[in-house]
Amino acid sequence: MILFIFRLFYAWPEAGMDRDALWWYRAKGVLFRVFFIYLATATQVAYNFTVTTREELFGGIFILLTQLILILKMEFFYKNLVKIQQLVHRLDGELYQPRNEEENIPLADARRKTTIFWIIYFIFSDGLVAQWLVISCVFTTMIVPAWPEVDHSTPHWIFLLVIFYQFLTLLLNASFNISWDSLLAALLALTNAHLHRLQIQLMKNADTRVIAVSSVSKAAWSVQRKSHDEMYNELLQCIIFHQEITGLLGDVLKLFSGPMLSQLYCSVFILCITEFRLLTDVNSTIETLKALMYLICLIVQVVQYCFFGNEITYMAAKVHQATAFVNYPDMDIKTRKLLIAFQQLTAKGINCSAKFIFTIELSMATFVTIIKTSYSYLAVLRSMTD
């Protein structure tokens, strides 16, 4: 579903496209987002220069900040499309394939969690846009304030055309936002799943015994020890896998840190404005429901970054704990030295953070801080307007 929406925006070209076909593909993407994204945003920016009251101002920037962040994320995506596709295709490598049913469990769990987030995000985001369409048709008002203004005095066909255009642009806006955020969440969730796979491999390597069945009688069996070379090679494979996972995570965070930091910082102000509008400028049940659903969308958008980042930090600590269960006494000197070096490496843990000028740790503590900060700004804003 994520890739389908990216293809709808001409943002996910097929592999092996020739130069001319790729040029036309990108040109269609530019025209598509100019007409459906930039033009709609420009009308909302123009509207903000025509407002005369505080309620109109906050009504105008209600969606505008989200659209501006979307444009930043969208242009980032188009500019770094090749790198993003390489990250996604990298997960098809041999190291990332589960070797047994037990290793399939964390991957299935990652798919389940990301699907739950995607469904909740989709319901509240696209459901909100559909709700706005119904309200606009019933009360003959624009879905979001924009210039030039259209109302009941406008010819009906023009009103329907503008409403349909606003609905389509907001639907596409929400869809790309969902896909962009869900792609990043999926990359973080899969990184956590592969760390879990590494923990499983280390726990299996903790048992250095091999049960051999006698060829004479299946009832007779003997316990043999793994050779030192086998133990060394298995531990070395785990270390290589750990290096690959941390390298993948580092590439994901390095690539996405800029837009992610912008989203997290702006979420504080967007949450503040939404809460302020919900508490002061909303005077009807319908308006309250609209603002509340929009607030939930913002919370889901932010919490998935923090949730999966928090999971990675926790699982990295579990990987370090798993190294303590490896059978140290049965190892030779060479394998012991390798294990000690690996333990020192995993003892540092993984600090899942977005770094671009500033640094924000992706954790549930950060999510709580964002909520608290937005509430603090809300208190200041209310005291100023009172």
UniProtKB/TrEMBL annotation:
A GO BP entry: signal transduction
Segments crossing the lipid bilayer: 30-51, 57-78, 116-144, 156-176, 291-308
PANTHER family xref list: ODORANT RECEPTOR (PTHR21137), ODORANT RECEPTOR 19A-RELATED (PTHR21137:SF35)
Recorded GO MF terms: odorant binding; olfactory receptor activity
Membrane topology: Multi-pass membrane protein
UniProt name for this protein: Uncharacterized protein
Main localization category: membrane
Source organism superkingdom: Eukaryota
InterPro entries per UniProt: 7tm6_olfct_rcpt
Keyword Transmembrane annotated: yes
